[in-house]
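Subject: sequence -> structure tokens, single chain

Hey, anyone have a minute? Need the predicted structure for the following. Not urgent.
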Amino acid sequence: MNILEYIDVIDDPRQDYKVVYPLTTLLFTTLCAILCGCQSWHDVEGYCYSKRRWLSQHIDLSMGIPSSWTFRRLFTLIDPLVVETLLREVATFLLGTGKSDHIVIDGKALKGSRRHDGRCLKSVSAWCHEYGLVLAEKAVGRDSHESKVIPFLLETLALKGTTISIDAAGCNACIAETIIQKKGQYVLALKKNQPKLYETVTSYMKEKGQGRACLIKDDFDDTHGRSVRRRYFTCNISHLGIDEKWPGLKTAIAVETISSTPRSTITADWRYYITSHSAKNSDLVNYVRNHWNIENKLHWVLDVQMKEDDDLKAERKSAQSFATLRRIALNIARVKDQTPKRSVRRKMMCAAWNEDNLLKLLT
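Reply:
Had a minute. Here:
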């Protein structure tokens, strides 16, 4: 991979007579800066000064170093959809011939973008569980909702033979239909935002689906200072006629979580899911459990190691594009640097310290 090959084909949104610095120069510099841990436009400008000699070997800096305002202005003009396309293209290359069996769909808010009306930028990501890659991302409009964006995100993905898991925000008949039409399978969290379906499934599972015959796994976990027992029950519900409105629906899943700590009382709660898989599919446990890995392997890394929630950029388009470039950098760092026991933050620091390491990530 040479990242410049992907950047060179992007159309420049600026008026020709106003262009001083080539688009490739600004985009490549920004991505390198983010890959080395930069978090603001001033950081990007400072990075450009400190790495001027190295950058000059790959891009045109004959007009000097762009200011932070130059970077900022460019990203107020670039359509975030262009950067989202760049993310998909780079992720496709990094995935190579690999095949994802499980894609997790989940939304995330950019908390630092919150304004006086209480709203902040939101996006929905498609995350490949096996390889830890962000495959695609879609911004959620100001007056939109995750459930309206997810179908458009799914259209950008190859879903044949893949299981898609989504939390309750994506428990929607139209989303289920899109997945089935693209030859995929789904596991959708079920809550009271679908009241009739929720009542039908929970009542049936309480009556018929919590017996020993429906138990597919009884799991114990003593990590993180607490004891947790998880029991997974599955039951065929295709005979209930629900599949007429929910394409492909075959099975309901009930998960009982019983947890206790040395200083607390025992607590128990139930979670419910619907799926197009057979009730006998042993992988259902993994699809349910692994769905939540997106929180600590993607969202936690973005917030804690890459400081995404500290991003206070005022202009919405530039903030969204910067966030997408951050995901491209995360994908590159994860796939191209396979050093054992090296965190994403450490990989970025090594790229910042050593230009040879940075070059290995980009080519």
